[in-house]
Every structure is written in structure tokens, then in C-alpha cells.
Design brief:
- A 6-stranded parallel sheet has the order 1-4-3-2-5-6, with helices on both faces. The chain has a 6-stranded antiparallel barrel with strand order 9-10-13-12-11-14. The protein has a two-stranded antiparallel ribbon with strand order 7-8.
- It is an alpha/beta fold.
- The protein folds into 2 domains: 160 residues, Rossmann fold (3-Layer(aba) Sandwich); 121 residues, Riboflavin kinase-like (Elongation Factor Tu (Ef-tu), domain 3, Beta Barrel).
- It is 32% helix and 28% strand.
Length: 308
């Protein structure tokens, strides 16, 4: 995927250009409807679809005290969108100055930078300074500047409108089945493997500690997971929690991945973990021998789940 980082770089994209614009945290079914509409229209017209998003999440800049955990970090979001077949991504740095841009100015900048044919957004999209831009303004500018505007209707599942907030709540409460229905895929976390204290290796179950880039964790516990490493799908278990059995544990929540039948040095590499099933909550054991015995049972149970 070609990632652009400023609006003027759109000039290098062969037109006509079809833009799908949004924050797209989670790349859920509602987001996919917007992106896929732009991609479909671009293909029909022989044009180019470009996804436009922002880094960091605008709320982290405008209302940092209200900023939620992310469903997808920027790196994760780009990966998921590339899997939809879109080959161009405009990632606009979001700071206080950009947040103060009047909505009309933002659209005019986009139109001036390329042969703009369409802007596709969610039907309740708001943008620009004070979030004063909306579909009505977009429609007026589209008539003036000669592009089409498309407001994609919300996607509903079981009577609920799909939203990042709804999914985040489902993940936080441990309802991963609901999260998967709203996402159109199993919930996943993308993390970078960092150095740990190798307690798992001493127990016979080596783990990769993942730094998850501010992504939302499900509740503490043990999960059966698939892990994607450099295009290779692997199976394993994850423990999320504070490791209450380990002496001198810091109390910081960790995500530790044990990959079955695997022994490679993967420090510094990115792994995407797909949560398949909850096995048990985190608990404190009498000692390391009891913990080791329980991990063996967890691995056996996870193998059975993943084989099915």
C-alpha cells in the first residue's frame, strides 16, 4: 500500500480520485461499507480509490481526557484496510492547527490537490473546526467544485448501529462474539514483541510479550488465539493480566503470547493476535508448579478449540 502523508501528495494519484474519509478506528462493518463503496465506484469509473484518515485519533488532540483506547492503532488500521484491496492511503497528521481548519477549507484543499470525482463518508460524518462540517456542507461544495458526495447509511446488526464505541464496550466487557459480529472478523490486537523476564520459558512455555500500541484489551484471562506473523498463521494461547502468581510482578497489565510448537527469535517483530475463545479468568496459584500444571491444561484445551 502507498501511504501518503500530506494532501498535496494526492497530485501523484492517477484520476479520477474517489476518497473514503473517516477515522476508521476498528475498520468495522460500517467503515468497510464506506471504503468498499468508494472502491467499487472507482473501479467502475476506471479511477483510483484513496482512504483518508488521521493520526493520532482526533479525540486524543481535541479532548485528550476523553480519549479512548483504540480498537486499531494506525499501523493496524493500515494493515486491515490494505486487506480490503485498497492500494492508496492518505494519513493526515492531526494536530491542534489541523483541528482548527474550517471544514470548507479542508474540502477545497482536497479538491485542489487532485482530479477529485467523489468523497464517500458515513451518513453522520462531521468534520473541521468545531465539527461544523456535515453532509449538507459537503453536498453544497460538491455542486460547486464538481465532485459527487456519498453519505453511506449506517450498518445495523441485530437492531444496533455498528460503531467503534459499541465494539469497544463489547471488547472491554469480554463479549468477543458480539465484537466479531460488528467487526465482520474476530477481534485482534497488533503488537510488537518486546523483551520480557522469560518466566514463561522457565516454566516450559516460552511467551512473546507484546506492546500493543494503546489498543483495547479484553478482560484479564487466558484465550485461545491465532497469531499472524509475517503472513504465517500460527496457533497459541494468550494471557492478559498482572501475573498475580509471579513474585515481584509490577501490576501492569501484560499481553503474553505462547505460540504452540514454536522456537524462534522474534524480538522487534509485529504479531497480530486474533482472539478465538475465552478459556478462563486470570487467577493466583499457590506456586509456580501449580501455575505450570494449569498452563499445560490451558494449552491442551486451546489446541482442541483451535483444531475445531
Amino acid at each position: 500500500m502507498l501511504v501518503l502523508r500530506s494532501i498535496p501528495e494526492l497530485a501523484q494519484i492517477p484520476g479520477p480520485v474517489f476518497l473514503a474519509i473517516g477515522v476508521f478506528d476498528g475498520v468495522h462493518l460500517g467503515h468497510r461499507a464506506v471504503i468498499e463503496r468508494a472502491a467499487r465506484d472507482a473501479k467502475a469509473a476506471g479511477g483510483t480509490a484513496v482512504v483518508v484518515s488521521f493520526d493520532p485519533h482526533p479525540v486524543r488532540v481535541l479532548r485528550p481526557e476523553q480519549a479512548p483506547r483504540l480498537l486499531t492503532s494506525t499501523m493496524h488500521k493500515i494493515r486491515l484496510i490494505s486487506e480490503l484491496g485498497v492500494r492508496h492511503f492518505l494519513l493526515i497528521p492531526f494536530d491542534a492547527a489541523f483541528g482548527a481548519t474550517p471544514p470548507e477549507q479542508f474540502i477545497r484543499q482536497l479538491a485542489a490537490a487532485c482530479h477529485l470525482k467523489e468523497i464517500c463518508v458515513g451518513h453522520q460524518w462531521s468534520f473541521g473546526k468545531g465539527r461544523t462540517g456535515n453532509l449538507e456542507l459537503l453536498r453544497r461544495l460538491a455542486d460547486e467544485l464538481g465532485f459527487d458526495e456519498v453519505g453511506v447509511q449506517a450498518v445495523c446488526i441485530n437492531g444496533e448501529i455498528v460503531s467503534s464505541t459499541l465494539i469497544r464496550g463489547a471488547v472491554q466487557s469480554g463479549d468477543l462474539a458480539k465484537a466479531a459480529r460488528l467487526l465482520g472478523r474476530d477481534y485482534s490486537i497488533l503488537g510488537t514483541v518486546v523483551q520480557g523476564d522469560q518466566i514463561g520459558r522457565k516454566l516450559g512455555f516460552p511467551t512473546a510479550n507484546l506492546s500493543a500500541h494503546n489498543e483495547q484489551f479484553p478482560p484479564n484471562g487466558v484465550y485461545a488465539v491465532d497469531a499472524m506473523l509475517n503472513g504465517e498463521r500460527l496457533k497459541g494461547i494468550v494471557n492478559i493480566g498482572v501475573r498475580p502468581t509471579i513474585a515481584h510482578a509490577t501490576g501492569v497489565r501484560l499481553l503474553e503470547l505462547h505460540i504452540f510448537d514454536f522456537d524462534r527469535d522474534i524480538y522487534g517483530q509485529d504479531i497480530e493476535v486474533f482472539f478465538r475463545a475465552f478459556i478462563r479468568p486470570e487467577q493466583k496459584f499457590a506456586g509456580l508448579d501449580e501455575l505450570k500444571a494449569q498452563i499445560a491444561k490451558d494449552v491442551e484445551q486451546a489446541r482442541g478449540i483451535l483444531a475445531g
